[in-house]
Amino acid sequence: MQRRIDEIVAEMDVPLHCRTEFSTQEEEQLRAQGSTDYFLSSGDKIRFFFEKGVFDKQGNFLVPPEKSINKIGHALHALDPVFRCVTHSHKVQALARSLGLQMPVVVQSMYIFKQPHFGGEVAPHQDASFLYTEPLGRVLGLWIALEDAMLENGCLWFIPGSHTGGVSRRMVRTPAGSVPGTSFLGSEPIRDNSLFVPTPVLRGALVLIHGEVVHKSEQNLSDRSRQAYTFHLMEAAGTIWSPDNWPSQGRGHVHSWVKLRATNTSALLNCLASTGKPRLSSRDFLMLVSLQTGGHEVVAW
């Protein structure tokens, strides 16, 4: 996956007016992502979003372009063959079955860079704030560490048990033609930092993230990146996807939902040949669930 993402980045061509700085701070989110169609219409595309402070006033890069990217989203799982075969691998299918999912669909995917020295923090949030369903509890994040994710380079932090408290806020689309194109309902409460538990994992680990669990990551001030591939599954059986979600089914925006399906084994092996099988410890983290499958660490929140 890292080799493939290097190829995608090398071919990156983002017009000046589409260069969007990604942020998880509410006001910056509404001003940057919420006011540009480049972000709002990215649900069925492969698009690039950048760290804060990497452009001059004219939109030119102040750092090498490959070092400026915050993330790539949101349809790698649907449009790129390497990421498609990883997303739909037999291991992912087996995991979905073991969790009792009857009709899992992939609703979005992201490649996260967490650049060295200035990779932006991710503020405390719940994924269901952006991927809202009725009933709740139908969205699951799968977060694959492509590099060691440690305290020093911005590992994930979680509040154990926070998935039982409902959703505190939602990002929703505003009426067509409105500026910005999104707004928030509710607000993110101020949370005691002592509630968060760090989740350091080694390269190759899979972290399962409940849609309502509160999580965050700190800014990466180290000299090592913390790359990860993440995608979200939704149980489509008996689930209503909110029409107000920013990855919208309507208003002319085509979603990139893909039913989790079988992948040709030889194609999968070819896709994964360059990554090898990481050697991971069986360290027992302070988690809700921790188990070992096929030599790869799986951590569930």
Automatic annotation (TrEMBL):
Picking any one GO molecular function of the record gives: metal ion binding
Q: Does the keyword Oxidoreductase apply?
A: yes
Q: Keyword set for this entry?
A: Dioxygenase, Iron, Metal-binding, Oxidoreductase
Which Pfam families would you find in this protein's record? PhyH (PF05721)
Task: Name what cofactor the protein needs.
Answer: Fe cation
Keyword Oxidoreductase appears in the UniProt entry: yes
The organism's place on the tree of life at top rank: Eukaryota
What does the protein in this record do? 2-oxoglutarate(2OG)-dependent dioxygenase that catalyzes the conversion of 2-oxoglutarate to succinate and CO(2) in an iron-dependent manner. However, does not couple 2OG turnover to the hydroxylation of acyl-coenzyme A derivatives, implying that it is not directly involved in phytanoyl coenzyme-A metabolism. Does not show detectable activity towards fatty acid CoA thioesters.
Q: Give the UniProt family note.
A: Belongs to the PhyH family. PHYHD1 subfamily.
Name it. Answer: Phytanoyl-CoA dioxygenase domain-containing protein 1
Q: Which organism is it from?
A: Bison bison bison (North American plains bison)
Q: Which gene encodes it?
A: PHYHD1
